[in-house]
Design a protein that fits this description.
about 260 residues; 11 helices; 7 strands; globular
Protein backbone atom coordinates (compact mmCIF):
# COMPACT_ATOMS: atom_id res chain seq x y z
CA UNK A 1 0.00 0.00 0.00
CA UNK A 2 1.14 3.61 -0.60
CA UNK A 3 2.66 5.55 2.28
CA UNK A 4 0.37 8.02 4.01
CA UNK A 5 1.40 11.67 3.71
CA UNK A 6 0.09 15.10 4.67
CA UNK A 7 0.84 18.58 3.32
CA UNK A 8 0.93 21.95 5.09
CA UNK A 9 1.79 25.35 3.63
CA UNK A 10 1.62 26.56 0.05
CA UNK A 11 3.02 24.29 -2.65
CA UNK A 12 4.30 27.48 -4.30
CA UNK A 13 6.99 27.61 -1.61
CA UNK A 14 10.08 25.37 -1.43
CA UNK A 15 9.17 21.82 -0.37
CA UNK A 16 10.45 20.12 2.78
CA UNK A 17 9.87 16.36 3.12
CA UNK A 18 10.06 15.01 6.69
CA UNK A 19 10.84 11.41 7.72
CA UNK A 20 10.29 10.51 11.39
CA UNK A 21 12.19 8.05 13.55
CA UNK A 22 11.46 4.52 14.73
CA UNK A 23 8.21 4.34 16.76
CA UNK A 24 7.17 7.82 15.57
CA UNK A 25 4.89 9.20 12.89
CA UNK A 26 4.25 12.35 10.87
CA UNK A 27 2.81 14.17 13.91
CA UNK A 28 6.23 14.24 15.60
CA UNK A 29 7.19 17.11 13.29
CA UNK A 30 4.15 19.29 13.97
CA UNK A 31 5.75 21.75 16.41
CA UNK A 32 8.61 22.31 13.95
CA UNK A 33 6.24 22.66 11.00
CA UNK A 34 4.22 25.33 12.82
CA UNK A 35 7.36 27.47 12.60
CA UNK A 36 8.04 26.62 8.94
CA UNK A 37 4.73 26.33 7.09
CA UNK A 38 4.48 30.05 6.27
CA UNK A 39 7.75 29.87 4.32
CA UNK A 40 7.76 26.27 3.08
CA UNK A 41 5.56 23.57 1.63
CA UNK A 42 5.86 20.89 4.34
CA UNK A 43 5.23 17.22 3.51
CA UNK A 44 5.21 14.63 6.28
CA UNK A 45 5.31 10.91 5.47
CA UNK A 46 4.46 7.99 7.73
CA UNK A 47 7.14 5.35 7.21
CA UNK A 48 6.16 1.69 6.71
CA UNK A 49 4.78 0.04 9.86
CA UNK A 50 4.10 3.43 11.48
CA UNK A 51 1.16 5.81 11.79
CA UNK A 52 -1.32 5.46 8.94
CA UNK A 53 1.25 3.49 6.90
CA UNK A 54 1.08 0.64 9.43
CA UNK A 55 0.03 -1.91 6.80
CA UNK A 56 2.79 -0.93 4.34
CA UNK A 57 5.28 -3.68 5.09
CA UNK A 58 8.70 -3.77 3.43
CA UNK A 59 10.74 -6.76 2.32
CA UNK A 60 13.22 -8.04 4.89
CA UNK A 61 15.87 -8.62 2.21
CA UNK A 62 15.54 -5.14 0.65
CA UNK A 63 14.17 -2.87 3.34
CA UNK A 64 15.96 0.30 2.29
CA UNK A 65 15.17 -0.21 -1.40
CA UNK A 66 11.51 -0.84 -0.55
CA UNK A 67 11.36 2.35 1.50
CA UNK A 68 12.98 4.37 -1.27
CA UNK A 69 10.48 3.12 -3.85
CA UNK A 70 7.55 3.92 -1.56
CA UNK A 71 8.89 7.41 -0.84
CA UNK A 72 9.40 8.08 -4.54
CA UNK A 73 5.86 6.92 -5.26
CA UNK A 74 4.52 9.30 -2.58
CA UNK A 75 6.51 12.24 -3.99
CA UNK A 76 5.40 11.44 -7.54
CA UNK A 77 1.75 11.28 -6.43
CA UNK A 78 2.12 14.75 -4.86
CA UNK A 79 3.84 16.03 -8.04
CA UNK A 80 6.87 17.27 -6.09
CA UNK A 81 9.34 18.91 -8.48
CA UNK A 82 12.16 19.66 -6.05
CA UNK A 83 12.60 19.15 -2.32
CA UNK A 84 14.79 19.15 0.77
CA UNK A 85 14.73 15.80 2.58
CA UNK A 86 14.81 15.95 6.39
CA UNK A 87 15.20 12.76 8.42
CA UNK A 88 15.52 11.98 12.11
CA UNK A 89 17.23 8.83 13.44
CA UNK A 90 15.78 5.92 11.40
CA UNK A 91 14.24 8.47 9.03
CA UNK A 92 17.66 10.05 8.70
CA UNK A 93 19.28 6.73 7.82
CA UNK A 94 16.62 6.12 5.17
CA UNK A 95 17.06 9.68 3.85
CA UNK A 96 20.84 9.34 3.69
CA UNK A 97 20.61 6.05 1.84
CA UNK A 98 18.01 7.58 -0.50
CA UNK A 99 20.48 10.33 -1.38
CA UNK A 100 23.30 7.80 -1.80
CA UNK A 101 21.44 5.41 -4.11
CA UNK A 102 18.58 7.13 -5.93
CA UNK A 103 20.26 9.89 -7.94
CA UNK A 104 17.02 11.84 -7.67
CA UNK A 105 17.54 15.20 -9.44
CA UNK A 106 14.67 16.66 -7.40
CA UNK A 107 16.66 16.32 -4.17
CA UNK A 108 18.33 19.69 -3.54
CA UNK A 109 19.40 19.49 0.12
CA UNK A 110 19.67 16.79 2.79
CA UNK A 111 19.17 17.55 6.50
CA UNK A 112 20.04 14.69 8.84
CA UNK A 113 19.30 14.61 12.57
CA UNK A 114 20.93 12.14 14.97
CA UNK A 115 21.37 9.44 12.35
CA UNK A 116 24.06 6.82 11.82
CA UNK A 117 26.19 6.88 8.67
CA UNK A 118 26.47 3.08 8.52
CA UNK A 119 28.84 0.39 9.77
CA UNK A 120 31.96 -0.45 7.81
CA UNK A 121 32.85 -3.98 8.95
CA UNK A 122 31.10 -7.35 9.04
CA UNK A 123 31.73 -8.01 12.74
CA UNK A 124 29.94 -4.82 13.80
CA UNK A 125 27.10 -5.55 11.35
CA UNK A 126 26.63 -9.05 12.75
CA UNK A 127 26.57 -7.70 16.31
CA UNK A 128 24.04 -5.03 15.33
CA UNK A 129 21.75 -7.53 13.60
CA UNK A 130 21.73 -9.67 16.73
CA UNK A 131 20.83 -6.56 18.75
CA UNK A 132 17.98 -5.66 16.39
CA UNK A 133 16.77 -9.26 16.22
CA UNK A 134 16.59 -9.31 20.02
CA UNK A 135 14.42 -6.18 20.01
CA UNK A 136 12.30 -7.46 17.13
CA UNK A 137 11.49 -10.56 19.20
CA UNK A 138 10.44 -8.37 22.10
CA UNK A 139 8.21 -6.16 19.97
CA UNK A 140 6.57 -9.13 18.26
CA UNK A 141 5.94 -11.23 21.39
CA UNK A 142 5.41 -8.80 24.29
CA UNK A 143 2.76 -6.16 24.88
CA UNK A 144 3.64 -2.86 23.22
CA UNK A 145 3.73 -1.11 26.62
CA UNK A 146 6.26 -3.57 28.03
CA UNK A 147 8.49 -3.29 24.97
CA UNK A 148 8.35 0.50 25.02
CA UNK A 149 9.33 0.75 28.67
CA UNK A 150 12.32 -1.48 27.94
CA UNK A 151 13.20 0.47 24.78
CA UNK A 152 13.37 3.83 26.54
CA UNK A 153 15.69 2.45 29.22
CA UNK A 154 18.50 2.41 26.65
CA UNK A 155 21.42 4.80 27.35
CA UNK A 156 20.64 6.92 24.28
CA UNK A 157 17.51 8.17 26.09
CA UNK A 158 19.25 9.00 29.38
CA UNK A 159 18.64 12.71 28.85
CA UNK A 160 14.89 12.13 29.25
CA UNK A 161 13.32 12.34 32.71
CA UNK A 162 11.01 9.58 33.94
CA UNK A 163 8.08 11.90 33.30
CA UNK A 164 9.22 12.56 29.72
CA UNK A 165 9.66 8.84 29.12
CA UNK A 166 6.17 8.12 30.44
CA UNK A 167 4.68 10.81 28.17
CA UNK A 168 6.56 9.43 25.16
CA UNK A 169 5.45 5.88 25.89
CA UNK A 170 1.83 6.99 26.23
CA UNK A 171 2.10 8.62 22.80
CA UNK A 172 3.75 5.55 21.23
CA UNK A 173 1.61 2.75 22.67
CA UNK A 174 -0.81 2.77 19.72
CA UNK A 175 1.86 1.05 17.61
CA UNK A 176 1.66 -2.61 16.57
CA UNK A 177 4.64 -4.68 17.68
CA UNK A 178 4.74 -7.12 14.75
CA UNK A 179 4.88 -4.30 12.17
CA UNK A 180 7.58 -2.53 14.18
CA UNK A 181 9.60 -5.74 14.35
CA UNK A 182 9.44 -6.07 10.55
CA UNK A 183 10.63 -2.50 10.05
CA UNK A 184 13.36 -2.86 12.67
CA UNK A 185 14.86 -5.87 10.88
CA UNK A 186 14.32 -4.73 7.29
CA UNK A 187 16.02 -1.36 7.93
CA UNK A 188 18.53 -2.61 10.48
CA UNK A 189 21.76 -0.69 10.70
CA UNK A 190 23.34 -4.03 9.81
CA UNK A 191 21.69 -3.77 6.36
CA UNK A 192 22.68 -0.15 5.76
CA UNK A 193 25.66 0.47 3.51
CA UNK A 194 28.33 2.70 5.03
CA UNK A 195 27.84 6.14 3.49
CA UNK A 196 31.24 7.68 4.30
CA UNK A 197 32.55 7.13 0.73
CA UNK A 198 29.42 8.86 -0.58
CA UNK A 199 29.79 11.74 1.89
CA UNK A 200 33.42 12.22 0.88
CA UNK A 201 32.61 12.67 -2.81
CA UNK A 202 29.07 14.07 -3.03
CA UNK A 203 28.38 17.69 -3.99
CA UNK A 204 24.86 17.59 -2.54
CA UNK A 205 24.38 20.21 0.20
CA UNK A 206 24.06 18.30 3.50
CA UNK A 207 23.44 19.51 7.05
CA UNK A 208 23.93 17.20 10.04
CA UNK A 209 22.20 18.08 13.34
CA UNK A 210 22.90 16.46 16.71
CA UNK A 211 22.39 17.23 20.39
CA UNK A 212 25.27 18.02 22.73
CA UNK A 213 23.99 15.55 25.35
CA UNK A 214 23.78 12.73 22.82
CA UNK A 215 27.24 11.25 23.30
CA UNK A 216 26.78 8.46 20.74
CA UNK A 217 25.89 10.81 17.92
CA UNK A 218 28.44 13.39 18.96
CA UNK A 219 30.89 10.65 18.03
CA UNK A 220 29.08 9.91 14.77
CA UNK A 221 29.13 13.60 13.86
CA UNK A 222 32.92 13.61 14.29
CA UNK A 223 33.20 10.98 11.53
CA UNK A 224 31.41 13.11 8.94
CA UNK A 225 33.71 15.01 6.58
CA UNK A 226 33.25 18.78 6.84
CA UNK A 227 33.54 19.77 3.21
CA UNK A 228 32.35 22.91 1.46
CA UNK A 229 28.88 21.39 1.03
CA UNK A 230 28.55 19.53 4.38
CA UNK A 231 27.81 21.45 7.57
CA UNK A 232 27.64 20.09 11.14
CA UNK A 233 25.35 21.73 13.70
CA UNK A 234 25.47 20.95 17.43
CA UNK A 235 22.42 21.87 19.52
CA UNK A 236 23.70 22.79 22.98
CA UNK A 237 21.89 21.31 25.96
CA UNK A 238 19.81 18.89 23.89
CA UNK A 239 19.75 15.11 23.53
CA UNK A 240 18.90 12.65 20.77
CA UNK A 241 15.63 14.21 19.57
CA UNK A 242 16.52 17.85 18.96
CA UNK A 243 13.47 18.78 16.86
CA UNK A 244 11.03 17.86 19.62
CA UNK A 245 13.12 19.27 22.46
CA UNK A 246 13.57 22.70 20.82
CA UNK A 247 11.38 22.98 17.69
CA UNK A 248 11.75 26.76 17.37
CA UNK A 249 15.55 26.68 17.34
CA UNK A 250 15.44 23.67 15.01
CA UNK A 251 13.12 25.46 12.58
CA UNK A 252 15.21 28.65 12.72
CA UNK A 253 18.28 26.66 11.73
CA UNK A 254 16.42 25.25 8.73
CA UNK A 255 15.35 28.77 7.71
CA UNK A 256 18.91 30.01 8.04
CA UNK A 257 20.27 27.16 5.92
CA UNK A 258 17.64 27.29 3.16
CA UNK A 259 16.50 30.92 3.06
CA UNK A 260 19.50 33.00 4.07
CA UNK A 261 22.07 31.50 1.70
Amino acid sequence: MPLYSEQQGSNQNPTLVFLHGFLGNREDWQSTIEELKNDFHCVTIDLPGHGRSVSSAVALEDGFGSCHRLIKFALDALEIKSFTLIGYSLGGRIALDYARTQNDPRLKHLILESCHVGLDNDQDKKKRYQFDHHWAERFSTQSIEESLYQWYEQPIFDDLSDQQKDATIEKRNHNYGVFLANMLLSTSLANQQCSLPFLNKTTLPISYFYGQKDTKFTGIAALIPQTKNIKIQCFNGLGHNTHQQDPINYANNIKHILLDD
